[in-house]
Queue: 4 jobs
Job 1
Amino acid sequence: MSAITREGSIVTITPGRDLVSSMVPDFKHELNAVLDESPQELRLDLSGTAMMDSIGIGVIIATHNSMKKKGGRLVIAGATENIVKLFKSMRLDQHLNLDS
C-alpha cells in the first residue's frame, strides 16, 4: 500500500517499493483513486523505489498523460540516479517533470 498525503491541491503518492509488473495492478488502482480527485499536481515520490520495469514506466507515462489531459501535472520526485538515467535514456526526461 502506498503512502498518500494531501496538501491543498497537491497530492503526493509514495509507493515505497519497486514499480514492477507484479505490483503494478495495485498501484494503478491507488493512482486511479487519486486521479479521480483531479489534483492540480500529483507528486510521485520514488525515494523508496530502486527498480522499475517497462510496466512501471508505462504506468508513469499513462499517469502523466491523464494529468496533462485534466490540466494538471505529474512531478517525479526522489528518483534514484539509476531511474533518472533510465528516463534520460528513453528521453522521458523531456516530457516528465523530474524534481531531484
Job 2
Amino acid sequence: MGELDLTASWAGISAVVVFCVAYALVISEEFHHLRKCKPVILAAGLIWAIIGFEYTRTGNQASLEPAVREYLVEYAELFLFLLAAMTYVNSMNERRVFKALRVWLINRGFSLRTLFWATGVLSFFLSALIDNLTTVLVMSGVVLAVGGNNKRFISVCSVNIVVAANAGGAFSPFGDITTLMVWQSGILAFHKFFALFIPSVVNYVVPALFLSIAVKNGAAEKQAEAVEMRMGAKRIMMLFVLTVFMAVSFHNYLHLPPFMGMVTGLACLQLFGFYLRRKETEIAANSHQHMAGDVMPYDTFREIARAEWDTLLFFFGVIMSVGGLTFLGYLGGLSQFLYVELGPTVANVLVGVMSAVVDNIPMMVVVLHMNPVMGEDQWLLVTLAAGVGGSLLSIGSAAGVAMMGQARGSYSFFSHLKWAPVIALGYGSSIWVHLLIN
C-alpha cells in the first residue's frame, strides 16, 4: 500500500472506473473479439499515470518507482516460468506428440460413452502437466473428429472436458496459473498442493456422472490415419519432465525461485534443438529433399514465438492494474470485509464463484496482494476454489473460452449454462470434501 490513502479521492475513483471498463471488455471478448491483453495493459498504464500525477502533485513521488519495480518483478517471474513451459508444449505439439495421442484415442474403437470418460479422465491428468488451455486444444480435436454431426455428443463432451481440465489443474502447481502463483509466492510448498487431489477428483466426477447419462452409448465409427511422432519427440518429453524436476528442486533445495529451474530447462531444450535442427537439415540434404511448410527443421525460437503472447501480456496488465489499486489503498478495506467480517471460508468460496464471472487470474492476484492471515488449509481452499470455480460458466476459464472457439456451433455459453447446477454441485462437494479431509 502507498503512503497516501486515495480510496475516496478523484484519483482512486478514476482508477477503479478505468479497471472496471477494461475488465468489462475482457469479459465480453467473445462478442467484440478485442484481444484481452489490450484493454488491461492500457488500464495498467492509465492507473499508474493517475497515481503518478497525484503523488507528484503532493510531493510523494519517491515511493512510486520502488512500488512499480516490486510488481514488475512479480510479473517477470511468472512470465519467464510460463514462457519456458509454453515453449515445451509448443515443441511437443510441433513434434506431433499431441496429434499422435488424438489419433490413438480415435482408433481405439471406443464406444461414445467410453470415449466420454476417456477424454475426461485424460483431460484431468494431462491438465496437471501441460495446463488446462493446452489440454482443451488437444482433447477437443478427438471429440470433434469422433462426434461429426452429433452436436449433442460434442456439447456434452465439451462441458466434461472443460470441467475435467480445470479440476485437474487445481491440484498441481503446473496445472493452472492460480496454483502456479500461489507456489511461486512461497505460501505453500510444492507437495502441499497434492492434498487437493481428492477434492479435485470429486469436483470432476460429480458433474461427469450426470453428464454421462446424456451420452448415448453408440459406437464411434470415425477412424484416422496413423501419425508418427517426429524425430526427438520422446527426448523432448523427457527434457520437459527433467525441467519440471529442476523447477521443483531449485525452489525446495536451493531456495531459488522456480522460474530459474524452468529457464535452465529451456536452455537444455535449446541446446537439444540445435542438435535436432542440424540433424534434420543433414538428413534432408542427403535425401535431396527441400524442407518447407510443415516439415521445416526444428527451431526453438520459432516455438518461443508461438507462445500465447496474448495471455502473457494479459498477466502483465492484470498484475500491474491490481498492483495500482493495492497501492491506492483499496485492497486493505476489501480484505478486512472479506477475511475478517465474513471469515476466510466464506471469503474463499466467494472468490471461486467470482472466478466464474471475472476469471480466476485477477481474483487470485487480488487475494495474493491482500495477503490475508490464514492457515495452509484456507490457502489450499482458495487455490481449489479459484481453480475450479471458473467451470461454473464457459467464460470463467481459459479452457472454456478455448472450447467455445474450437467447438463453435455445438458448444456455447448457454449450452454450458444448462449444466451449471450439476457443476455447482461438484463445486460445493469438492469444497466440503476439502474441509473434511484437509
Job 3
Amino acid sequence: MKLHEYQSKALLSMYGMLVPRGGLAATPQEARQVAERLAGPCVVKAQVYAGGRARAGGIRMAGAPQEAEQHATALLGSRLVTSQTGPEGVPVHRVLVEEALEVERELYLGIVIDGGAESVVVMASRAGGTDIEAVAREHPELILRQVVDPVVGFQAFQGRRLAIDMGLPASLARSLAAQMVALYEVFIAKDCSLAEINPLVITRDGRIVALDAKLNVDDDALFRHEDLAALRDWSQFDPLEARAGQAGIAYVKLDGDVGCLMNGAGMAMATMDAIQASGLSPANFLDVGGAADPNRVATAMGILLEDPAVKRVLVNVFGGIARCDDIARGILQAFQPGQRAIPMVVRLLGANLQEGLALFRASGLNVTFAASLLDAIQALRELSNAQ
C-alpha cells in the first residue's frame, strides 16, 4: 500500500527525521493560507501515487501566497500525467505547500527488501534529486549498499560508512547516519516494503532534511496497522480496481477484451497466459479466492461486467474449497435484469460440478461449456471470430 508524500513525512517526523515546514490544502484558498503562514517562498506539490511529478508540472515554485493559490488552482481537480501513470494520469485532490529551502547538496536514501541478499538493504547515493533508476542503469557505481543483519538491525557505523563513501565530511557523517537509523526504524516498525527519500538534502545552514518521501507498506501486514490501512487513497486507483480492493477482491484492470474470472492466483496467471498465447488478450486479472461464497463471486462478476471493454468472459474454476454450484450461483446473481448480454465460456471442475453446470444450463444465458482449458480457449477464439 502506498502512502502520499504528506503521510510519509508525518511518519518520518514522528521518528525524529527533519521535514520541511508546510501544510496540506484541498482548495486554492487553503493553499494560500498555508503559504501566508510560511511567510516566504514555497513549493506547491501535487499529492498523487506517482513519481516524476516535477517533470510533469506537479511541483511548482511560488514566491508569494497569491502565486501558491494560482498553482493550486491549476493542479487541484486536474489529472497529472507522469512517466509512471500512463496516458490517463491520476487525479489531484490535495496539494502539499512547503517552505522552499536553500539546498547545498542533494542525496538519495532508500531501503528495500532485497531477495538476492535475503535481507533488508539500505541504499544511498550522492546523485540525489534525479531519476534514481536511470542512475542505477547508467552509473551503478554511484549506488552504495549496506546489507542489514535482521538480528541487530541497521547500525550507526553503517550509516557513517555510507556517508563517507558519498564524499561527505566527517562533521556531517554522524548526523546523516542518525537519519538513516531513523528511516530504518520507520521501515521496520511500519512493515514497509519500500522507504525512499529523494532527495535527502543538506541545506546551506547544515541541516539534513527529507525534501521528498515515499513509503510503501506491505499489504499482508496491514492487519497490524489499521491506522495506516485507513490512509489508503482509493481515488488514485482505476474505479473498478478501487471497488474490488474495497471488497477485498484481487482485481487488476488490463487492456484486453476477454473478461477472466478464476479462483487461485496460479490458475489465474496460467489462464491469462493461455489467452494471450492464443492471440486474444485478457481484460483483467480477477481471483475470487479459494473460499469464495456466492455473494463474493457476484460482486466480482459485477465488477468484471462493468468494464465496457469486456466482449466475452472466460470462467475457469476448480471447485476445491469453493464449490462449483456456489460459483455458478454467484455469477448468475450478477446478471440482474437489464444487465448487458455477454457470451461466456465456462470451464468448471471439482466439488458439485454437475449442480453448477445445471444452474448455468437453466439460466438462459449464452454459455459455452468446455471440458479443458484448451477447449475453453478454442471456444473463445470462435466467439471472437463470430463477433
Job 4
Amino acid sequence: MKNLEPFFNPKSILIVGVSRKAYTFNYTILKNLLEIFYRGTIYVINPNADEILGVKSYHSLEDLPEVPELGVIVLGNQVATIFEKLAKFGVKNIAIESELRVDTEDVLLLETLNQISEQYGVSYCGPSMLGIINFINNFTTSIIPVRQYLMQKHRKIKEGVSFIAQSGGLAGAMGWWAPSQEIPVSKVIHLGYGFDINDADVLRYFKEDITTKVILVFLREITDAIIEAVREITPIKPILFFYVGKDIKKEEQLKNAGGICVSNYIELFEFAKIFLWCPEPKGPNLGIIGPSSGAIYIIVKEMRKQGLSLAKLTNEHKDIILDKVGGSTCTLGNPVDYWPPERFVGTKICEIYNTSSKTLLQDDSVDGLILALEFFIEIEFDFNIFHKIKKSFPNKPIVTVLIQAEREGAKRVVKSASELKIPVFENEVERAVRGYKLLYDWYSKIKKK
C-alpha cells in the first residue's frame, strides 16, 4: 500500500509560487493553513517577496533550511520544470494542483511527470487536484477556503466519515458546508486525474485510518481498481457511493463488490449518520412511536417495500403500552399511535415517548426503534430523555424522523439528537427506513463472509 500520510498529515509543507494577491489559489492555501492553525512548518517560495501573510518567503529552493515533506504546485506554467526541481531537491511527495486539460499537449506533460517520478522515487497527486482537508490534524491543501470553526468541531472526534469526491467543487465545499445534522468528518480529498496516486490508493489508506469509520465516494468514473479496493475494504468498513456516470455494468460490479449505492448525493451524508451512530441491527423487526396514523402509515409502507416488519410484542409489553399510552394505539401495542393526547402539554408527550420507548426496546422482538416527531411548541419535550434510554439499550438502533415539526423546536431536537448520536431525518420518512435497511443488509453480508 502506498504511504499517503505525507499528503494528509505532513510535518512540513512547501507551497511553490505563493502570490501576494488575495483570493488567488496559492494565496488561499497559505491563508487556510494559517487560519486553521496548522502545526507543521510552512515554507513558501516567491522570488519577488520577502514575506507573505507574515510567513517568510524564500527566493529559491536552495535557500530552504530543510527538504519539506510535501510540496504543492499551483502555478499553471512550467509544471514539469518545477516538478523536476522539487524532485532533484529531494521532495518525495508532491501535490500538483495546477489545472490541466488532457489534450495532446498535456498528455506529453503527463508522460514527463511519470518519468521524473520514477527516476527520483517521487509520489504525486494530481494534476488538476483541488486538494485535501484533514480535519483531525488541522491540515489542508484546498484551494477553496476552509473555515476554522469547522476544524475546531471536527478535530475533537475520534472517528467519522472520510470523503473521496471526483469533483473539486463537492470536495472543496466540505471546508465550509455542514449538513443540517452535523456529522463528524475526518478527511476529504479530490485527486484530479490521479495518474500516480489514484482513488483506489486513497480507499486503502482510509481502510487503515483509525479515524475513518465510514467511507463516502462521489464517482464520475468507476475503474477496475476502485472495484477491487471496494471488494477488499467493505467487509471491514462500509463504503457508500453515488455514481453519476452512464456505465451501468460498472455500477453493478461496484454494488456486487460490496459498495452501498445511494439514490442521490445528499444521501451519502444522511445515511452516513446511521452507519456512524447506530449499532448493528439484530433483525428486520421495528418498533414505531408516532403522533398520527398518517405518519405511521408512511413509515410502514416504506418498511414493506424494504422487507422490514413490525415487531410483535409479548402480551406483557403490549398491555403496558395499551394501559399507559392509550390513544389510538394498535391493539398489538406496536405501532404506538398516541393521538389524541389527553392534553397539549410537553410533559405528557414526553412521558408517552419515555414509557413507549423503554417498553418497546425491552421486548426481544424489537430490533430497532423509529421515532416519528410531528409536533408544535406546546407539545415539544426535552429530547435528552433518550440519553438514559440509549444508555440502557446500547445494542438497538434508534432513528428519529421529524415530520412537519415547528422550526425552532426542530432545531432543538436536532441539536440534542446530534449530541446523543441519534440520527435525525427531517421530513424524509422513507429515507430513514431505507437507511436502517442498508445498515441491516451491510451487517448481514459481513456475517456471511
